[in-house]
Amino acid sequence: MSQQQFMQNPWSNWMKGEGPDSDIVISTRLRIARNLRQHPFPLLATDSQGEEVVRKVTEVSESDAMRKRHHLQVIQMDQVNPLEKRVLVEKHLISPHLAEESRKGAVLLSPDESVSIMVNEEDHIRIQVLLPGFRLNDAWEIGTKIDDIFERNLNYAFDETRGYLTSCPTNVGTGIRASVMLHLPALVMTQQISRILQAINQVGLVVRGIYGEGSEALGNLFQLSNQVTLGMSESDILSNLYGVARQIIEQERVARTYLLEHTRVSLEDRIFRSYGILMYARTVESKEAAQRLSDVRLGIDLGVIPDVSPLVLNELLVTTQPGFLQQHAGQKLTPDQRDERRARLIRERIADTEK
Amino acid sequence: MNCEECGKRPATLHLTKIVNGEKTEYHICEHCAQEKGDVFTGFHNFSINNLLSGLLKFDPMQKSAKESSANKTLRCETCGLTFAQFSKSGRFGCSDCYTFLGDRLDPLFRRIHGNTQHIGKVPERTGGQLKIRKELEQLKQALQTHVASEEFEKAAEMRDRIRALEQKMAQS
């Protein structure tokens, strides 16, 4: 796949929404942070030191062992324009930090975009696996195998006591951060969400909005991830996250059934109003779009709206973001122009998929 | 006053930014503020590292002024990062910082992770003998359990595996 295609194609593998529990878990993400011994961390590295790290990592990605598993394409950050970077961020393939602040940053992408390896982000190597639905173990299997291939070819910074040494002390140890993106409209509607979020913080997990640190929970989407990386094994971290996510999924299902049984008319009313707005509105702001898309998605999952595919909703979630809209338009747009294009895009996509 | 950005909606956010003594004022609506994002970089940049800095500055366990001045002179001999710089940025400069800043890091790790010792994956090639040592520990524990429950055949099996591993360690 060419660099151009990565930018134009709104479809990433994780959006195909066909994994386990995909009515609630949109995607599963795993990140593994690794660094090379005897190379200053990206924070202090000079341009030429940064380039050397990119060269070493790229070499391994072209080795037979890696080719057998993944055909990775290298994209250098200094060869991508700001709009294209934003698209990569909106598709969750790179972090805002790699896009905006890293020097000599690069990303290695698999054609289906389920694997992206950031080079010279906060750490030298950040392996990311992104899968649709609830698939923590699969993500770990894929990630740890890539990690093994790098480790056979590069000298990792590893310490017997501290584990994998990372640039930030919050990642040291296993270097893994696993997360699931959850769609929890019924828990929000029944106002149970704040109680649940509080409980989560007490078991070493953390919840964020979908675009990572500091972002709010747009469209009832919550990203649940592990906080602790030192003193717990990878399997402990994953099973802890799995167990808590499982509980939340069940709670959401109970809340959805409750709403259907007790407030069916008002729930259907809300869903169909949102559906109507998305089908007919001529201008829609991003925040409203996220909320309406969430309502419609709930309507689809509950069988209230039978003829729209949930996959379209996953796709629209990404393609209605400002960067994507502008990339699609091929020019910079004012907020008003974006609202108009956003409304048109949603109308057309929903009309396309109606049976 | 209307929003400076779109000119339509009323400006609800009033912001004063001072960079190098130069003062700039912004009056924008919430909608444009969200789309514009960059005006607020000052807020968005508040990250986990700022919090770390807070964790490092306040150490009630610190015993003396001597210790605190020792922190000031502590530096990584490889990349030159000082403990003071680290506690400001919350980031290490290279992997050797973990060695040179050493024990001073334990309270921080304990606060973040509740732990100071890694117990997860060990790299095959660069993990040294740690992988074998961990396996040995597990085998020795298993041996004890089998002896305690008088399962002597299983215990003998563990003993043989321990011996084989110890030989392997001695050779490498």
Explain the overall architecture.
The complex is a heterodimer of chains A (355) and B (172). Chain A is built from 14 helices and 10 strands. By secondary structure, chain A is α+β, with helices and mostly antiparallel strands. An 8-stranded antiparallel beta sheet of chain A has the order 2-3-4-5-1-8-10-9, covered by helices on one side. In chain A, strands 6-7 form a two-stranded antiparallel ribbon. In chain B, 51% of the residues lie in helices and 8% in strands. Chain B has 9 helices and 2 strands; from the N terminus they run E-E-H-H-H-H-H-H-H-H-H. Chain B has helices spanning 30-36, 41-44, 48-57, 65-73, 83-89, 97-100, 106-113, 130-148, 152-171, and strands spanning 13-19, 22-28. Chain B has a two-stranded antiparallel sheet with strand order 1-2. In chain B, strand 1 and strand 2 (22-28) form a beta hairpin. In chain B, helix 3 packs across helix 5 and helix 8 packs antiparallel against helix 9. Chain B starts with 12 loop residues before the first strand and ends with a helix. In chain B, 19% of the residues are buried. Mean pLDDT of chain B is 77; it is low at 38-45. Chains A and B meet through helix 6, strand 6, strand 7 and helix 14 of A and helix 1, helix 3 and helix 7 of B. Chain A: This is Protein-arginine kinase.
